C-alpha cells in the first residue's frame, strides 16, 4: 500500500525518517449498496436543498456554519477556518513515554505501520529495541490531513506501529451510566463462571473468526442474480434476557461445554503429537 504520510519521528535529538502505511484494510470484498428507485432500479441522486425555500442550492452558495445554539448558526469563510489552523509539522515528536498498560484501550483508534525511509534503518531499529526493552510507548502529536492528531508509537515484532489516539474529551465518562457492583455475586456462582471460562479458553487465532453475514449475503445476491426465489427464514423469538436461575444455567453450560472441551483437548493433543514428529501414516497403521 502507498504511504499516507512522510516525515520523521524525533525523540531527544534523534531524528528518524519514516513513512506511514495503513496497518488495516477494509473488509475483503466489502459489500456496498446503492439506493435505487423501486420501479426502474435507477440510482437515487441526493441533492443540496435549502430547508427555507425548498430549492436546490449550487456549491458556490454553500458556506460552512457552526450551530452555537439550537437552530442558530454562525457562518465561517474558508479563510476564517484557516486562521485556526495550527502550524503543520512533518515530524512526530515524542512528548512522553508511558507504560502501555496504563493507557485505557478506548484511547486507541487507527493503527499504521511506521516504515523507515532510506538512511533511517539503524536509528529505527535502535528506537524499536529501546521501546521493547523498557516496555514503554511513545506519545506524541503530528499533523495528518490538516488535523492535529494524538498518537502512540510502540514495538510490535520487527515493526513500529503508530496508533492515532483519541483526545481525553472524546471519551464518555462511565459515571454517566449505572453499573452493578460485586455485592450481589455469590462465591459459588463466581467459581462456576470462572470454571466455564477456563473450559472455553484457548489460544487466540484470529483466522477462525470470519464475517458470516457477508458470506450469507453474497449467497443471497448470487441466487438473486440467477433468478432464484429467496427463502426468508422465520424470525426466531428473542432470547430470554431474564436470569431466573443463574446456578442452573451455569451448571448446564458447564455440562454442555464439558464434551466440547474434552474434544478440543483431544484435538490439541493430536496436533501436538503431530508436531512432535509422529508421522500420520504411522498413526494410521497403529490404529489399524
Summarize the structure in words:
The chain is of the alpha+beta class and 288 residues long. Among the domains are: 5-26 and 85-169, Ku70, Chain: A, Domain 2; 184-200 and 244-282. The chain contains six helices and nine strands; from the N terminus they run E-E-E-E-H-E-E-H-E-E-E-H-H-H-H. It has helices at residues 78-82, 121-134, 187-199, 212-225, 246-275, 280-287; strands at 5-11, 14-22, 64-69, 72-76, 91-99, 108-116, 136-144, 147-156, 159-165. The strands form two sheets. It has a seven-stranded mixed beta barrel with strand order 1-2-6-9-8-7-5. A hairpin with a 2-residue loop joins strand 1 (5-11) and strand 2. Helix 3 (187-199) packs parallel to helix 5. It is extended, with a radius of gyration of 28 Å. The relative contact order is 0.11. Mean pLDDT is 84; it is low at 278-288.
